[in-house]
Amino acid sequence: MASVTSVQRNMETRFTIELIGDNLDNNHMSKIIKWAVNDFKNKYPLLFTRDYAGGRRPDYEWEELLAFEIYSVYSNKRTLRKRVEWISDNSESVNYILNNKSPGKTTLNNFKLENPLLIIEFFQYTIDLGIDLGLVGGEILVADSTKIKAFANEFKTLSIGQLDYLLDLIYDLSFDTSKNSKWSLLRKFFFTDKLPKKLGDLVKEIDKNLNQHGINLLKTALQSQENRDWVIGWLDELVDNYDGKKRVNLTDPESRKMKMKDGTSRYAYTLQTVRDVKTGFTVSQRITQEKNDKKTLIPIIDDVISNLGKTPRYILIDNGYWDIESLEYSYLRNIIPIIPDLNQSKHRNGTNISNPYAKHNMLFDPVGEYYQCPYDKIENRGIHKIRGENKRVFKSTKCPECPFHNKCAGNSKYRVFHESTHPLILELRKNFIASVELSIYQYRGIYSEGGFGTLKNARQYPDLKRRGKQKADIDLKIESTVDNLIKIRDHLKATLITIP
Asked: Among 85, 208, 360, 434, which is least packed, fewest CB within 10 Å?
């Protein structure tokens, strides 16, 4: 049993354990994290280089604070209040991580704000470590996305018209600072509630064009020249973040109004994650403002190749990523996308599964190139020009004599399918059918949807706690870093790592 000594700090008694960590097993998460952070520092010492103010060495080393940040997230201590309380509880694992030090809220908060690069590079380090330890195969990857609710007030918004009006108003009036200028009289009105006669029409116009949030920004600008310049800069940022459709959120303008899985609309971000199927290791993660997955496959592929240092063989994705240019990009980089087309996706999702005449419920033979309907084959009849565009035409000559004709073709003489002539379509369809037959595609559900479920439920992360795209990205990279370190511990049981 380790001995205990009393230390006086800030008029409070804090107990520290000598030979701290002796009571912790080598596979304890605090030991895995501390070992990984120290190994990371040894490999990349320049990332930890700092300038000491006045030559005075700081009280806390970055490796201590980085390790504590990771360990806190692993332990579901995500708020500064919980972390400070945790430190004061004198836990042996916390003392081990922090080397018996006791940082306060300001130190913990500043570290995270000032060191996004360190956190991003440590996430990459866990990927490299996973590769070195054989936990990442790098051959078959799974990509998927989910919506993460932003830390934003749903009602604190301005329309683009309100933003433009407020900017024009400030530019038109605020640079005339004379005593009887409209700007000066507006200041007197808002802060004394005395309305000069010649301002009556202007005040009515302001009330008509601005909501209360816009008026609050106007009042802030009226307080001083410094405040006015800040408001102009803030309004410019809000305008830059306007997506052309929805109102801009004042608390997190980078977030976007998105439809969530429960059917509600919320200000949110899209979290895109790529996992390796060997152990479910996270090899790429991005936060985007895109409301759907179209056009997002290209940056995913680039990120994966960069992170892995190699080109994977397959990437498993759902129909939401269907974009011919992106799929061509994947093939050009020798990555085969395994993706269902719209009909295959509908069939897997059980859309109108009881209707045997629905196209997506008819078995497609990629070798013979035909659909098997309840009566006959709907075969490829070649390429025809349909409304000025070349289409592959599928048709059965036996439709008129089919006993199911009315239910299937309705008032038409034949049941006809028109499809794209793009040569990649058939190749994608064949690859998807083969992947289902070989049980490869099942990994997508296991490692994508299962991973998001773990994040939101088991890891208690239903939404973001900080504002802005970069901060959201850092927070979620920490979550993936933790997940990777857990896999390192669970799969190796710490037997291949010597913990100091």
From this structure: 208
394 bridge partner residues: 380, 417
Q: Please tell me the predicted confidence (pLDDT) of residue 195.
A: 78
Look at residue 163 in the predicted model and tell me its pLDDT. Answer: 93
318: containing domain: 140-150+260-340+436-491
Please list the alpha-helical segments (H only) found in 180-282: 182-192, 200-209, 212-223, 225-240
Distance CA 119, CA 112 (A): 8
If asked whether residues 89 and 166 sit together in one domain, one would say no
Q: Are 434 and 406 in contact (CB under 8 A)?
A: no
Task: Report yes or no on 428 lying in a domain.
Answer: no
In this structure, the answer to whether residues 278 and 239 fall within a common structural domain is no
Angle among Cα 214, 218, 220 to the nearest 5 degrees reads 115
Query: Are residues 308 and 449 located together in one domain of the fold?
Result: yes
Selection from 272, 311, 283 nearest residue 136 by Cα: 283
**Residue 6 included in any domain:** no
Same domain, yes or no, for 350 and 409? yes
pTM for the model stands at 0.84
Please indicate, yes or no, whether residues 37 and 108 belong to a single structural domain of this protein: yes
Helix, strand, coil in percent for the chain, rounding step 5: 50, 15, 35
**At which of 249, 274, 305 does a domain end?**
249
Cβ atoms 272, 297 nearer than 8 A: no
Q: Looking at the structure, do residues 52 and 98 belong to the same domain, yes or no?
A: yes
Which string of DSSP letters, residue by residue, matches 172-192? HHTT--STTSHHHHHHHHHHH
User: Cβ(360)–Cβ(417) under 8 Å?
Assistant: no
CA-CA distance, 307 to 118, in Å (whole number)? 16
Q: How many domains does one find in the chain? A: 4
User: Does 368 fall in a domain?
Assistant: yes
pLDDT score of 190: 85
Q: Are 218 and 169 in contact (CB under 8 A)?
A: yes
Clarify whether residues 312 and 448 are in a common domain.
yes
Per-residue pLDDT at 468: 86
Domain annotation covers residue 13: no
Cβ burial 52-72 (10 Å sphere, 16+ → b, else e): eeeeeeeebbbbbbbbbbbbb
Place of tokens 């799929």: 327
User: Taking CA 497 as the corner, what is the angle to CA 493 and CA 500, rounded to the nearest 5 degrees?
Assistant: 120
325 & 276 share domain: yes
Q: Which residues pair with 257 in a beta bridge?
A: 267
Ordered mean pLDDT values, 10 residues apiece, the chain (500 residues): 36 43 80 93 91 71 94 90 90 91 90 91 96 93 91 89 93 88 88 81 91 92 92 91 87 89 88 92 92 92 95 94 95 94 89 90 90 92 90 92 90 91 91 89 82 69 80 90 91 54
